Amino acid sequence: MSTQLFSLQGRTALITGSARGLGYGIARGLAQAGARVVLNGTKADTTHAACRVLEGEGLHAHALPFDVTNDAAVAEAFAALDAEGIEVDIVVNNAGIQFRKPMVDLDPADWRRVLEVDLTSAFLVSQQAARRMIARGRGGKIINIASLMSQAARATVAPYTAAKGGIKTLTHSMVAEWAQFNIQANAIGPGYMATDMNEALMNDPAFDAWVKGRTPAKRWGQPDELVGAAVFLASPASNYVNGQLIYVDGGMLAVL
Ligand code: GCO
What is the CATH number of the domain that holds 243? Predict the structure, then answer.
């Protein structure tokens, strides 16, 4: 089997929300597989700092801070890439926030904010990327970061759950409209991963025990454990894979 099957040499990947957390881990993994990675975050300083760390490891990285929920900012970001001759072949829609509160107490503004970051941003960024992929005629890859909540809910995270359910079916819409242009759209569903978004949960002894008891692997996942699925879905190895959601969850959704 050719090792080129999983190589990302010569490809450019834009990963939203990649200055830290899961996005940074995925970006680092794609870069190690040969891609030039475009890091994104809302803050220029932390995005450039993350970029410098990857460059320090000899990886090919470019910082592009912009607000993924603002359609004008997204369009400007892609115009800036155009001006630099940077063509995005792979998009990882990772940007996401969490907001935990019972629905009866939830401020509608908080609901809207979560949906904007966790779902609408994937549409805005993918729309700009797909327009260019279609015009170039050489296809592309879109990887949407879903969640356990794309499939099952728990109390107090309704906006996140609604957004991640939407991410699953938005992926199907991308297949319906863009697979004909050799664009493969798929998703990755992380389980309970040890990230700063979940720090409060990890530090809660009861929740920590629940995760470890409910997960067949009996542990939290690590951000770099998403890299294998990401490299697969970003590489030629997945050129006939469309609309799939790969759960990297230690088996949680496989059992009652
Ligand atoms: C929560 C967590 C989860 C995980 C992850 C699971 O509050 O239950 O934040 O949503 O982060 O999304 O797939």
Answer: 3.40.50.720
pLDDT band at 111 (very low <50, low <70, confident <90, very high): very high
Question: Side by side, which strands form the sheet with 36-39?
Answer: 61-63, 36-39, 12-15, 90-93, 140-145, 183-190, 245-248
Strand partners, 166: none
State if residue 223 touches ligand 1 by the CB under 6 angstroms criterion. no
Instruction: Ligand 1 pocket test: pick from 94, 157, 222, 247 the residue with the most ligand atoms within 8 Å of its Cβ.
Output: 157
Q: Is the dihedral of CA 241, 244, 249, 255 positive or negative?
A: negative
Structural domain contains residue 255? no
Distance from the alpha carbon of residue 116 to the mean position of ligand 1, in angstroms: 17
Please give the residue range of the domain that contains residue 85.
Answer: 3-249
pLDDT tens for 185-203 read 999 999 999 999 999 999 9
pLDDT of 57 higher than 90: yes
Q: What is the pTM of this model?
A: 0.98
Residue 22 Cα to ligand 1 midpoint, Å, equals: 12
Q: Is 247 a catalytic residue?
A: no
